[in-house]
Design goal:
Helix content: over 70%
Pfam family, one: DUF3817
Strand content: under 5%
Subcellular location: Cell membrane
Membrane topology: Multi-pass membrane protein
Largest sheet: none
Main location: membrane
Number of helices: 4
Keywords: Cell membrane, Membrane, Transmembrane, Transmembrane helix
Shape: elongated
Order of helices and strands: HHHH
Structural class: mainly alpha
Length: 110
């Protein structure tokens, strides 16, 4: 498996997790202090779009790593649980790094 598959999953896991925390903060302001309704709507739309990209990249990684359905489902859902994506990303990275192929060094022709 190429390293880029893992890298783009990791980037999207962090981006999705951060956006979910921002969304949770916006929800507190919207429902707790009755302010920021427009910001909450915009952030929720952005998070939803980014979550779809996260799902695509996580599914791609899971299919290439040949994960069982339960593990794939947990990784896919971790983008919906605040802070979970940070921990799941770390665990997934440790498990998948041995599967990542290292490029062979270029051999100079004489």
């Amino acid at each position: 498996m190429k390293k880029s598959v893992l890298t783009r999953y990791r980037v999207m896991a962090y981006v999705t997790a951060v956006m979910l925390l921002v969304l949770c903060t916006c929800m507190v302001f919207k429902y707790g202090f009755d302010m920021g309704e427009d910001v909450t709507f915009a952030v929720s739309q952005v998070h939803g779009f980014l979550y779809i990209i996260y799902l695509i990249f996580a599914f791609d990684l899971g299919s290439k790593a040949k994960w069982p359905f339960g593990k794939l489902l947990w990784v896919l859902l971790s983008g919906t649980i605040p802070l979970a994506a940070f921990f799941v990303e770390r665990k997934v990275t440790r498990a998948v790094e041995p599967l990542v192929s290292t490029p062979e060094p270029a051999v100079a022709k004489a």
